[in-house]
Structure formats: C-alpha cells, structure tokens
Amino acid sequence: MPTLTGGCLCGAVRYELGGKPHPVVNCHCSQCRRWHGHVGAYTEVPKGDFTLVEERGLRWFQSSERARRGFCAECGSSLFWDSLVKDQLGIAAGTLDSPTHLKTIAHIYVESAGDYYTIADGLPTLPGSDVGAEPRHVRARDVDPRGGGAAPGSTPWASAASSRARARALHRVARARLPRLDGVAGA
Ligand SMILES: [Zn+2]
Ligand SMILES: [Zn+2]
Question: How far is the CA of 108 from the centre of ligand 2 (A)?
C-alpha cells in the first residue's frame, strides 16, 4: 500500500511512493525556477520506493550531467528530478495528492533566488555554492537510505544505471561544492 500518491494535472502521469518520503525542501536555483515557473518544492525518496502507475505522458529532459527532469508532455506539469549519480528521486511536492502530511523544512540555493520575492517563513536557508548548478535537492537527512536502496532495474531508471559509472567521479567533485544541509538534518 503506497504511502503517498500523486500525478500531473491531466492524469497522463500517475505515481505512488512507498516508504517514508522526505520532508520538503524549497530549491531556489535558476534551473528549478525556470522549469517550475517558480521555486521548486521537493520531497524525495529512494528510487525503489517510487512506482509509476501511469506514464503515457511522461518525458524526460536531461538538465545537467547529473540529473534529468520528468514532465508530462500532455499537460506540461513538472514532476520529477532524477539524480543520475545517486539513488534518489525528487518529487515535486505540488504534484502529490492531499493530504501529504509532509512539512517544508528548508530553503536551498537561496543565492540564486529571484529578486521578485522574499523568503520570510523563518525556515533555515542555505546559500548554495554554484549559481545555476544542479542541486542535490534534499540533502537534509542524517540517514542515507542508499543502504537499502533497490536497484533501479526497471524503467525509467535504466538510463540512469548506465551512466552511473561515468557520473561517479563527477559526483565526488560536485559533492564537495554543493551545500550541506546537515544543520537541518533530522528536522
Ligand atoms: Zn499531464
Ligand atoms: Zn533547484
């Protein structure tokens, strides 16, 4: 039985999440703001906890060396941020069915935030380190679920698996430059 369900505006993409989805982090990076039309609000799960139940509208756009983004080609909804270097899938929180029982815990990449709004909710803010860099959206955890991560053998993760080796070295470099959310971990 899924923990949460969700989908795009038209129903051509539907999914289920198992396990315990991560609290929501708001990403202010320029890529998220362009792709979503504003800030990207993401929960995250290990890929093994994600199941597509309707994918006829799903398309992928590789937005960087380290990630691709999934959207609905029929209605235009922005849904997924798929890391190509680790076993994590970001889910746009706005696509979840209510109630989610999730809480927003932090803002990341605030150095890349737009000048047309203010962040005033009192939540922790992290500057991010590279303007326009692809963030690892939900770094805010102590317990990395990779230990129990299921192999992403089925679609749509096959291409992610094939690029893993190439991406591993890049990931090591990127990791050192990306923001740490350890201060809010466990929130
Ligand atoms: Zn759709
Ligand atoms: Zn972002």
Answer: 8
